[in-house]
Specification:
This protein is mostly helical. The protein has 2 domains: 128 residues, no CATH class; 130 residues, no CATH class. The protein is built from 12 helices and no strands. Helix 1 runs antiparallel to helix 5 and helix 8 packs antiparallel against helix 10. It is globular.
């Protein structure tokens, strides 16, 4: 499989560079968000073709990562790219980086390639499980994937519907899943990666698939997800969002707390 990984990084470098040049031309660095989601789905397809593993389990793993990739890529493209308006996060980054913005954004595009490789690893472990038969853990894996994708899709739609109502401008979405978590979409995104752990469960190296949920939690909770979203919401919604923080869990869904406004 060494040839696959060499090709993966070479093609990834070319694609990321082309996407960066397109983003510069359009003035939309938000294009970077679709690279790793679409790239992971396509990379999983390529891996499945060259790995030589042809089992029902491997095909179902490919179907699930493909469905995840398509749904999230479509959502990110229509929500952040198709509208033609730069994401406030990247506007802030550009202002912060100043004259180094061009170089730093290029690095941001390139770093998506090792990120794709990082999350392709647990998917590949799940695909390589050639144990005969269909186990209860495989059924559990499918259920986890379906619940996670449905939950993330519902959360995204609830937030989009809330924002589309002019009466809610400047307000905080507390409807549906957003009543129980400040970031239910991130929670379900994290949950999705446990399905590959369940698919790999009957192998001796199943524990390596834990890299998926562990890495995703680290990225979403502490690096790329929650911190940026919280800062943006505090800046745009102020005290209303602080009250939301007082009453609602940041990541894991739970019953809202009744607290006085600080």
């Amino acid at each position: 499989m060494l040839g696959f990984w060499i090709s993966f990084f070479l093609i990834g470098f070319i694609v990321a560079t082309a996407a960066y040049l397109l983003a510069r031309k359009l003035g939309l660095m938000a294009i970077v968000d679709t690279i790793w989601t679409a790239g992971l789905g396509l990379s999983a397809l390529a891996y499945h073709q060259v790995s030589g593993v042809d089992t029902a389990r491997s095909w179902i793993v490919l179907l699930l990562i493909g469905a995840w990739s398509f749904r999230l890529s479509y959502h990110l493209f229509t929500d952040r790219v198709f509208k033609g308006h730069e994401d406030p996060r990247y506007q802030a980054l550009g202002a912060h980086w100043g004259r180094h913005a061009g170089r730093n954004f290029y690095f941001l595009f390139l770093i998506q390639i090792p990120f794709i490789g990082l999350f392709l690893f647990p998917v590949s472990i799940a695909m390589q499980n050639t144990a005969g038969g269909w186990f209860w853990t495989d059924t559990l894996a499918v259920l986890i994937a379906l619940v996670a994708m449905a939950g993330e899709g519902i959360a995204d739609k609830q937030l989009a519907d809330f924002r589309s109502n002019p009466e809610n401008k400047g307000g905080v979405c507390r409807e549906g899943l957003w009543r129980y978590s400040r970031h239910p979409n991130y929670f379900f995104e994290w949950l999705h990666w446990f399905c590959y752990v369940a698919f790999a469960w009957s192998t001796s190296g199943w524990w390596a698939a834990l890299l998926g949920p562990l890495a995703m939690y680290g990225f979403l909770r502490f690096l790329t997800g929650v911190p940026h979203a919280e800062r943006s919401s505090l800046k745009s919604r102020g005290d209303a969002y602080r009250r939301y923080q007082d009453s609602t869990n940041v990541f894991f869904p739970w019953i809202p707390r009744n607290k006085q406004v600080r």
